[in-house]
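Anyone else keep sequences and structure tokens together like this?

Example one:
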Amino acid sequence: MAPFNMFVTLLGAVYILSSGYLRLTTEDTDTPRPLRHDCPNTTTFNPNTPYQSNLDDVFSKLTSNAARGTDFIYFSASAGSENSTGNSSDYVYGIYLCRGDISSTMCHDCVLASITDARQECPTEKEVIIWEELCMLR
């Protein structure tokens, strides 16, 4: 009977290990997952300034473009203008890039999640890069 008990124990261990592996390999890839963020802390901005307003405008443009359902997997936007002295320090540029094999809905959701991550991880940084599983935001 000892070989039978060893076989049952071994079979149980294989089942437990394989069920854990299957759960990891069959996770839903439709949900954006933050992989990495980078805020080099080179320059920052103060909240409630023209820069913040321009940043909100760029985030809005990026999100609305990703929601349009076009075949484009990337989009860039900018906001701001030079002041009377020619200073463009409040000008904001933004770009997203989605994987080419995902739907526009998944791209939109990923861009939206990236913007949320950018606001949480780098709230006053002027330079931010967010890598998600399905997209990148800069």
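And example two:
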Amino acid sequence: MGKLCSSLISRSIVNGGRNPSNFHSSCSFKTVATHINALSKNFMPARGKPKKYDSLDNVDDALFLFNKMIHKYPMPSVVEFNKLLGAIVRMKRYAVAVSMCKQMEFFRVSPDVYTLSILINCFCRLGQIDCGFSVLGKMLKLGVGPDVVTFSTLINGLCNQSKISQAVTLFDEIIEKGYEPDLIIYTTILNGLCKTGNTDQAIWFLRMMEERGFEPNIVAYSTVIDCLCKNELLNEALNLFSEVKVKGIRPDIFTYNCLIHAMSNLGEHKKTTRLLNEMVDNNISLDIYTYNILIDARCKEGMISEAVEIVDTMRKHGIEPNVITYNICIDACYKEGMLSKAKDIVDTMIKQGIEPDVVTYSSIIDGLCLQKQMDKAKRVFQLMIEKGCAPNIRSYNIMINGYCKAKRLDEAMELFDEITQNGQIPDIVTYNTLMQILEVEAFVSNEKCKVGKVK
């Protein structure tokens, strides 16, 4: 797999070595220090003994405990600080953990591989991957050898930022340095390749895992099967699915749903039925996602009654429709001109205690626009806002397009002006619709000029 021009590890050493403290610059620790001091003054003994690390669930308690630790003599070991940092990370207070690391450095608490790995993880979670690599450089400068968890964290951070080529480069480098990647690293890169649609590389990587003695689990195989399905490579997905079963690995509900979704999109109903029967034979129950796939497929083909039958079957099996189920049916009914049926479904949805969301409202508005009932569409649009459901760009596009087709151009332009005022960003559909409005206005203006000249 390809290399970047310069070694990521080598660059980390250079960047981290210039000033081992620079990696804290992005997160000020003064605020946390002030907070700690305030807590130490105001903290009341009535609160009882400090909680153990594993039961800490409040950042103020953690900060108070940290303050006691750094002023204790003799100071607790770095292991104790690591436990506290771990508790902070479990609270997802990553910036606080970074600030604590800075204070630990100030009080000369020597970090170990676990401390610095926690710090790298925090920077990755904060989207500051470059700071994470600076910490790696500091580790190497201090002679603290990174372990496989350290590299796993960095690779995960790169993949989360869709920097897959850099993640693969780092993977190659750690192998060259003599580290043995674990299953988590392999699965992380595999998942990253699939998310970015690198199907061929994902298959290659899967085979490399097998060759190196890491037998992929069903999660890894399902990830690749899902990638193949999304790229409409159904035959390849089915071949890999068969391979999984031959190896004695039991497919799970996610695996089946990926294949059923792909088959349904391609209209392969016989294959879908065979797969559903296989699920039943293997005691794998259909979930809400499976049913929604089947309902959506029927609705897209205009088979509304069959879709309703699937909803009834779902209920008989103890699974209640969710907002997605209702949205699929409502959208299909409006597109088929079944306004009364769509209204009944909306009423049922509300009676079941499920609040309409932006997708529901947009489907209703779209259906009314298709029926040229713009006044009703406008009322639903206003109702959506009154109910605290903010319109998205699709909602605006539907209304603007409806006004344009109804030749209510002033209202269309007025709504277009509202888009940016309400924090939305116009997309290509918005601008294409706007161009239609301008073309119509130009045509009307031109015709008026011609009439004026004749007179």
